[in-house]
Amino acid sequence: MRYDTPSLVRWNARAYDSSFGYVSAHGAPLIDLLDPQPGERILDLGCGTGVLTAEIASRGALALGIDGSPAMIEAAIAHHPGLDFIVGDGHDFTVADPYDAVFSNAALHWMNRDPDAVIECVRMALRPGGRFVAEMGGAGNCSALTAAMLTAWREHGLNEPHLPWYFPSPAEYAARLEKAGFALRIIEFFDRPTPLDECPNGAADWVRMFAGALLEGVPPATVEPLLRRVNELAAPALRRESGWMADYVRLRFAAVRH
């Protein structure tokens, strides 16, 4: 399975907040692990619309949100006018003064071009002893969803899509952190089946939100039948009487810069 960044991922910030608000809602335990203290400087990498940046700031920290999507940053500034947000690429960002912590929720798996470069940028943004606390998709994340996508694309005679995510195993990511000069304090790897409560069209809605760029290369007349087939293929594993589920697997960790 190949993981490459599509030429452009266009985020719909309004849909992200409404239909996929669970992305932020599940960040509460991660903020508890971060344990932001009053006066600390904390960088939220891949901040999205700034919901968790605001939560960090509410605990007295001085928070900065960074995201690669101008639409997300525009929404974050509109929703949280008293906080600081900037557009930045996780692979090559720099900061003028070091931070006490870098926090990231559900974003690192999008930074798939060079994971080691992302980790190095985080290290350089931290003071010695600063902490890196994050949660991302882990190995096996969305396996039923992506299998349905790959099969549907193949059945429709389309080239295999270049999936825009990086889902490492705990051992792989721990090795990357340690090689970059971090001491790992905790790493957790767990299944988190997540209801897609606001997705009336099930897996198809998920694909439109999180893999919409892959549809740009699909002939317009093929898009709807393709997504219907994704639903048919994903339904046995992911559709319950109560509704659709996403088969999420999460990798959560806390590390300290040497």
What can you see in these coordinates?
- The protein is α/β, with parallel strands linked by helices.
- The protein has a domain at 13-140 and 164-195 and 248-257: Vaccinia Virus protein VP39 (Rossmann fold).
- It is built from eleven helices and eight strands.
- The protein has helices at 13-18, 22-25, 28-34, 51-58, 70-79, 115-125, 143-155, 170-179, 203-210, 212-215, 220-238; strands spanning 41-45, 62-67, 84-87, 99-105, 126-137, 182-195, 239-240, 243-257.
- Strands 1, 2, 3, 4, 5, 6, 7 and 8 form an eight-stranded mixed sheet that branches.
Brief sketch in words of this structure:
With 258 residues, the chain is of the alpha/beta class.
Strands, helices and their partners?
Blueprint: H1 13-18, H2 22-25, H3 28-34, E1 41-45, H4 51-58, E2 62-67, H5 70-79, E3 84-87, E4 99-105, H6 115-125, E5 126-137, H7 143-155, H8 170-179, E6 182-195, H9 203-210, H10 212-215, H11 220-238, E7 239-240, E8 243-257
Parallel strand pairs: 1-2, 1-4, 2-3, 4-5
Antiparallel strand pairs: 5-8, 6-8, 7-8
CATH topology annotation of one domain: Rossmann fold
Q: Indicate the proportion of strand residues.
A: 25-35%
Number of strands: 8
- Compute the average pLDDT: 91
- Rg (C-alpha, Å): 18 Å
Structural class: alpha/beta
* Overall CATH class of one domain: Alpha Beta
Number of helices: 11
Which oligomeric state applies? single chain
Relative helix content: 25-40%
Order of helices and strands, N to C? HHHEHEHEEHEHHEHHHEE
Distance between the termini: 34 Å
**Low-confidence spans:** 1-11, 15-22
CATH architectural category of one domain:
3-Layer(aba) Sandwich
For the record, what is the CATH homologous superfamily label of one domain?
Vaccinia Virus protein VP39
User: Based on CA inertia axes, which overall geometry fits?
Assistant: globular
Characterize the main sheet: 8 strands, mixed
